[in-house]
Amino acid sequence: MQSLISTFSHHLNLSQSQVETILSKPLDEVLKSSELNQELGSLDSNLLKETLPTAGAVLAQELPPFYNWLKNQLGVKRVPDGPEHTTAWVIGFVNNRESLTSLVDLHRPVPRAALEASIPRLIALFDGVENAQVRQEWQKAIATLCLVLVVDAHEQEKLAVTA
After folding, report:
1. Fewer CB under 10 Å: which end of the chain, C or N?
2. Could you tell me the pTM of the whole model?
3. Helix (H, G, I), strand (E, B) or coil at 130
4. Where does residue 53 rank: exposed (0-12), middle (13-18), buried (19+ CB within 10 A)?
5. Which pLDDT tens digit goes with each residue over 46-76?
6. What is the DSSP letter of 163?
7. 161, exposed or middle or buried, with CB in 10 Å at 0-12, 13-18, 19+?
8. Backbone angles phi, psi at 115, to 5 degrees
């Protein structure tokens, strides 16, 4: 968990204590929070849109081995067959066609432990992008989206315990 918190802190404009606080809140509160809205608002959407081909190429190359790792090492049962769905979703989000709640709904079946273990590796898929600004912006975008997923996973786990 500490690795995940430091990953978020490193890629987002949040301290580790801010990340911990966000992770303890309910999803609906986080979706309305100034911290999340600041992170989303600070994304350079023009740069992300201009560099979609770069991100698409990275995802097309790096997602298949990532999916194998999810399936074979972490035991995640429902893994996409190829990178097309994920790439299309990221592009849709950048182009304001996909919502965060849709992203959350898609990832609810993923066990919290697998989700948390996979995020640093998912963000690191962009480590090979040579342009530092492009690399950092895509890592920040992925980290922001993943933060929402982890908030929901924490909330779902709390709900399951109290049910």
Report:
1. C
2. 0.90
3. coil
4. exposed
5. 999 899 889 889 998 999 999 999 999 999 9
6. -
7. exposed
8. -60, -50
Burial of 92 (0-12, 13-18, 19+ CB in 10 A): middle
φ and ψ of 93, to 5 deg = -65, -45
Calpha distance 33→75 (Å, rounded)? 33
Classify the C-alpha dihedral 139-142-145-150 as positive or negative: negative
Q: Is 139 exposed, middle or buried (0-12, 13-18, 19+ CB in 10 A)?
A: buried
Question: Locate tokens 């982890």: which residue?
Answer: 150
Amino acid (one-letter) located at 104: V
User: Dihedral (C-alpha) 23, 144, 12, 153: value to the nearest 10 degrees?
Assistant: 20
Cα–Cα distance for residue pair 19/65, rounded to 1 Å: 29
